[in-house]
Amino acid sequence: MQLSKWEYFADFVVYPILAAALLAAAVVEGSTVTPVIAAFAAGLASWTLVEYVIHRYVFHHAPIAADMHGRHHDDPAGYVGSPIWASLGSFALAFLLLRAFGPFGLAAASISGLMVGYLGYATIHHAIHHWTIDDRSWLYEARRRHLSHHYRATERNFGVSTGFWDRVFGTLADGRSARLRPRG
Which of 3, 106, 110, 151 lies 20 to 30 Å (CA to CA) from residue 92? Predict the structure, then answer.
């Protein structure tokens, strides 16, 4: 979906505030610190798998999401993406599911960790398409992998933050021959 510049960058404003508020709420609610830290870490650690699953199955196969994501493939450097209401709704649903099975504080801390993971992904994805990246940086390899997904192997390289899950699930394609266009 084509987004305005404000809509495109809204995640970078909204999610740090929400993640901090949820983490604070988990502590204020009375949960002890160690389980809150563990729940946050679990949410953060699970983000890369969530990212892989969403990209592979939702963005490439679910009708409405695949259409929106297809626009990103058509215009990788444009302000094209999922609107914030879609990600907020997904995080809210995940929170409600976690809350159904556990205490508020642990659900809030887990979602806070997922949000921080999502912010990391959003930053990496933006950098891949918009920043000039030194070819000695780990980000350069992420760019190679992701641009291979865009231009050579659309059914491979679904991980943006990491290629780990692509290795695990056999969808990793060598990104070495992907054409890298400098961003300025």
Answer: 3
